[in-house]
């Protein structure tokens, strides 16, 4: 036994560390408690109709029989009032036993009430009983005294509430109680009932009686030792492997609940393929990895190499690992090094746009699969894909799609219910692991049960089956615990167990850990650290433990199956044998215990990131939050969001930054909080406008909130928050409002001597003036602004101002304005410069902006083939980056083009879907143009009246919002539709004159020519 003190008593070692770790509630521990509350119905009415002495004797008889019912089922009265009482059922019972005994006691109280009523000739003597189960904090854990100590939990209050709503002579139980006793009693569901003092309705069940036989117990789990109930799966796997050996690659998805045996089956596959495979690759997705780009690959490097105190790898590390596995393709290595953010990576790849990077990654993946399989069949395993990050998910989905070309067996595991539709196109073979039944559970227990205890198996089997639920992993832990119990004659698996699978497992683990002395506290500290921990980090978490004691405890935890050693350069690292073990131990900690451990970890790692190189910025933010260090957590979340945004990982960036803003609400209202809020809003705004839409309500509200905060800051700091003001202008609800806001921003910052700010002021002006139809002013602002453009500064600015690069926007706006003013060749040249430049800078939101510009340009020119091609690229890019507004635009433009290429009905349907999505998102800044397109398609379908109504709405919207640059075309569109509908010629001529006048006032010579051509075609005036 490992000793932390001079005593051999494990309990003293535990309590000492608990105090050092800041245990809350003065040594209280969590346990599951079942409470019973009973009360006579109408006892006050009885008092009025009975002699007072007879009433007292009747109450005494009822209470005596009630106490007897409770005592007969191991319950203990906690409180008794004249016509009712409260009882608790001992924590030294299995929680399922306690719940079952409480229900038996409740039913006995009902029977006893009836019996007493008959004896006294009172058929109106009736009782209500409520029973509930919950986690509770109990101070004194000794059997003799725990009921005299304060018990804090919801069970007592809920039992009282259930008793109040119960029908006379019935027993109502909570959902948790029913779950525990579901095998031993029959119930009738009574619905979900609102209970006073509880925020959500509780599912309520009426207990009917005890079952004579126990139902089959289904389970899920992992089993060390022989396989049971896996023959079908193993046969399927064997056939699939034979196909791989014959050159037909295959992918297999193994699904099941936590602990059901996915990892065990995966290890068996690895064992059975060992002799005939050339290579094995194993990748592990980790909890919290959803926002950590390529974390399964990153963590496959030995120890997640540390550079300058940060987690990461070098380009040399990537090359070494790849070449060691037969991958010598330099381009493939460079792409993966870039995606990993490796130090020394090829920076030229940063000039590629995200679509190009994705295409290169897919090509690199193809060549990598080809390289690793040259020497023979390969097994690639990726475990726990329910925790996979978006980038890894994309590459894994592509690998699954390609795998049939190579002799590769791709095996994936996932928890049941996790979204895996991204694998549908690859059509993997799916295995859903089924639970063990009672007979199979018996075989599993026999396979693992200690040899010297087999004689006791018959009397312990039912308890073991009930506690484990037949879960293979739980069975394994129960059997290990039984084999390590000190006294054979006291080996009872019913001690200290808790309800439902996870709670039962929590008790199993805690019972085993209590016999390991201080190793229990080491396991708890490791669980707080996460999926990996080192000895130096454990020393930080447990400062009262010696280095030797921690090392011995870690070794003991490895020997007893809790931890495994993890390869890491320079130090010994440990990981939990199964993530369910880590989760369960962590969840059993009291909140204050967790907080102390997280605070110690954060303090150490924040000062020296090399101490835990696997903890990235986002993970460190989570530790800060759990430590209660909210301000530190917000700062780190903002940093993590910016890091993700710089890699075009916009989904992860949004998650980090929105969580940072949510945490700001916990910090009060002082100015320091507002600075953090503004920093988060500055980073999040461009991401939100790119993902959801620049005129969407969420983006608009974000900037309006930001400006409200920014205006409260000192005047000398206003320029610091210019990105917030810029976004506020950018997301104005209409162009007149945007124009006014732009002038306000320009006036506010006129004296600021900063070329970038002056560039962005011009950015405001050209965007507004274009939509107002002021082409000369637009082109002048673009020329003045781009003269100030600096690409190095732009790397930061493009993430702050509208989410897109100013030069991309300026060139695109110039291309559109030049075309409208009749300068077609100059327009084509500007458009080509925009496309080349955006592809070089590789900034996802800027690429989305340029795709929109390309589509609009093709729309102007009625180039439907080009529009089909651009809209396809838009859709692909939108899917890759989860850009909802871009997805809507792709549908809108594709539908318009298809409708004009002969597929009117289907094209119009796709168009309407896109328009509906944009309306839902609120991303309809160009609504008059969309309505113009809609009216045109409705007119082509022959519904001229509806089409004219739509174009009337478009003209009204354009005039209301100042969206003037397409107003001439709207009038021309109404003229064309009106001519087909038989509108009087005077009205048609008036509309076309308006079109000409508007276009001429704007200098839009292309639109002037269109209007005059329509005049000639309709015979309204002589052509010119």
Automatic annotation (TrEMBL):
Gene3D superfamilies registered for this protein in UniProt: Nucleotide cyclase (3.30.70.1230)
Protein name in the entry: Adenylate/guanylate cyclase protein
Keyword S-adenosyl-L-methionine in annotation: no
GO molecular function: adenylate cyclase activity; ATP binding
Domain annotation Guanylate cyclase: ranges: 34-163
GO biological process, one term: intracellular signal transduction
Keywords on record: ATP-binding, Nucleotide-binding
Keyword Nucleotide-binding: yes
Organism domain of life: Bacteria
Gene Ontology cellular component terms for the protein in this record: cytoplasm
Region of interest (Disordered), ranges: 1-26
Pfam families listed in its UniProt record: AAA_16 (PF13191), Guanylate_cyc (PF00211)
């Amino acid at each position: 036994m490992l000793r932390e003190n001079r005593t051999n008593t494990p309990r003293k070692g535990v309590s000492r560390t608990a105090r050092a770790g800041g245990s809350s509630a003065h040594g209280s521990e969590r346990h599951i408690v079942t409470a019973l509350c009973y009360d006579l119905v109408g006892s006050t009415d009885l008092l009025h109709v009975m002699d007072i002495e007879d009433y007292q004797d009747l109450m005494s008889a009822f209470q005596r029989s009630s106490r007897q019912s409770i005592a007969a089922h191991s319950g203990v009265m906690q409180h008794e009032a004249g016509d009712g009482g409260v009882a608790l059922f001992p924590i030294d019972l299995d929680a399922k036993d306690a719940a079952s005994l409480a229900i038996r006691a409740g039913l006995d109280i009902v029977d006893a009430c009836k019996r007493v009523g008959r004896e006294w000739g009172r058929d109106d003597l009736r009782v209500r009983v409520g029973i509930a189960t919950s986690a509770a904090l109990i101070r004194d854990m000794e059997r003799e005294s725990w009921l005299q100590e304060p018990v804090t939990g919801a069970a007592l209050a809920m039992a009282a509430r259930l008793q109040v709503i119960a029908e006379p002579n019935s027993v109502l139980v909570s959902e948790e109680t029913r779950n525990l006793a579901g095998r031993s009693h029959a119930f009738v569901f009574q619905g979900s009932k609102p209970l006073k003092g509880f925020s959500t309705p509780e599912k309520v069940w009426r207990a009917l009686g005890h079952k004579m036989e126990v139902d089959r117990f289904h389970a899920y789990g992992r089993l060390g030792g022989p396989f049971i109930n896996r023959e079908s799966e193993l046969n399927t796997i064997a056939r699939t492997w034979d196909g791989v050996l014959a050159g037909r690659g295959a992918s297999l998805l193994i699904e099941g609940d936590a602990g059901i045996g996915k990892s065990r089956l995966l290890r068996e596959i690895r064992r059975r393929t060992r002799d005939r495979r050339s290579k094995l690759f194993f990748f592990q997705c980790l909890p919290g990895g959803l926002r950590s780009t390529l974390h399964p690959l990153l963590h496959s490097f030995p120890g997640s190499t540390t550079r300058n105190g940060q987690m990461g790898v070098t380009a040399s590390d990537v090359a070494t690992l790849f070449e060691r596995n037969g991958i010598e393709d330099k381009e493939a290595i460079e792409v993966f090094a870039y995606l990993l953010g490796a130090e020394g990576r090829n920076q030229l790849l940063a000039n590629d746009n995200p679509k190009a990077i994705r295409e290169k990654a897919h090509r690199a993946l193809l060549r990598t699969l080809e390289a690793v399989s040259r020497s023979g069949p390969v097994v690639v395993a990726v475990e726990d894909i329910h925790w996979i990050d978006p980038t890894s998910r994309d590459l894994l989905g592509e690998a699954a799609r390609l795998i049939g070309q190579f002799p590769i067996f791709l095996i994936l595991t996932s928890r049941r219910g996790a979204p895996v539709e991204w694998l549908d196109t690859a059509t993997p073979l799916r295995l859903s692991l089924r639970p063990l039944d009672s007979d199979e559970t018996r075989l599993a227990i026999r396979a693992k049960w200690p040899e010297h205890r087999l004689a006791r198996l018959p009397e312990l089997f039912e308890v073991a089956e009930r506690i484990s639920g037949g879960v293979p992993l739980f069975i394994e832990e129960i059997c290990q615990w039984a084999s390590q119990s000190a006294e054979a004659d006291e080996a009872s698996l019913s001690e200290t167990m808790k309800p439902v699978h996870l709670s039962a497992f929590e008790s199993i683990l805690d019972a085993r850990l209590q016999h390991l002395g201080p190793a229990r506290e080491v396991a708890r500290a490791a669980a707080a650290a996460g999926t990996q921990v080192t000895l130096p980090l454990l020393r930080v978490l447990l400062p009262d433990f010696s280095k030797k004691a921690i090392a011995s405890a870690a070794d003991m935890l490895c020997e007893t199956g809790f931890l495994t050693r993890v390869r890491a350069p320079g130090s010994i690292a440990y990981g939990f044998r199964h993530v369910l073990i880590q989760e369960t131990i962590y969840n059993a900690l009291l909140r204050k215990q967790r907080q102390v451990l997280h605070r110690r970890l954060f303090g150490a790692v924040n000062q020296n990131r090399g101490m835990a190189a696997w903890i990235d910025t986002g993970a460190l933010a989570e530790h800060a939050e759990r430590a209660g260090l909210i301000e530190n957590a917000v700062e780190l979340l903002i940093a993590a969001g910016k890091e993700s945004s710089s890699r075009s990982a916009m989904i992860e960036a949004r998650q980090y930054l929105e969580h940072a803003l949510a945490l700001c609400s916990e910090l009060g209202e002082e100015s320091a909080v507002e600075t953090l809020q503004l920093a988060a809003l500055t980073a999040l705004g461009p991401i939100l406008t790119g993902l959801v839409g620049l005129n969407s309500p969420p983006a608009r509200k974000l900037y309006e909130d930001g400006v409200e905060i920014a205006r409260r800051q000192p005047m000398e700091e206003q320029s610091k928050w210019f990105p917030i003001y810029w976004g506020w202008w950018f997301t104005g609800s209409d162009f007149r409002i945007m124009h006014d806001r732009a002038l306000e921003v320009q006036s506010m910052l006129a004296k600021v001597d900063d070329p970038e700010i002056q560039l962005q002021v011009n950015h405001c002006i050209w965007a507004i003036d274009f939509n107002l139809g002021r082409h000369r002013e637009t082109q002048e602002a673009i020329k003045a602004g781009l003269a100030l453009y600096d690409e190095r500064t732009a790397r930061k600015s493009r993430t702050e101002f509208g989410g897109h690069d100013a030069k991309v926007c300026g060139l695109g706006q110039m291309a559109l304005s030049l075309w409208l003013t009749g300068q077609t060749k100059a327009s084509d040249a500007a458009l080509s410069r925009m496309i080349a430049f955006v592809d070089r800078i590789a900034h996802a939101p800027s690429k989305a902006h340029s795709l929109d510009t390309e589509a609009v340009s093709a729309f102007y020119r009625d180039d439907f083939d080009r529009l089909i091609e651009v809209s396809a690229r838009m859709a692909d890019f939108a899917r890759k980056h989860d850009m909802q507004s871009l997805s809507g635009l792709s549908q809108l433009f594709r539908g318009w083009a298809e409708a004009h290429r002969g597929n009117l009905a289907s094209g119009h349907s796709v168009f309407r879907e896109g328009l509906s999505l944009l309306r839902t998102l609120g991303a309809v800044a160009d609504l008059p143009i969309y309505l113009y397109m809609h009216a045109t398609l409705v007119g082509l379908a022959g519904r001229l009246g509806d089409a004219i109504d739509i174009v009337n709405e478009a003209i009204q919207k354009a005039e209301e919002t100042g969206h003037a640059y397409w107003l001439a075309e709207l009038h021309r569109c109404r003229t064309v539709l009106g001519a087909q509908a038989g509108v009087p010629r005077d009205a048609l001529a008036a509309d076309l004159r308006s079109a000409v006048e508007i276009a001429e006032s704007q200098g839009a010579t292309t639109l002037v020519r269109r209007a005059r051509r329509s005049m000639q075609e309709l015979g309204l005036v002589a052509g010119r």
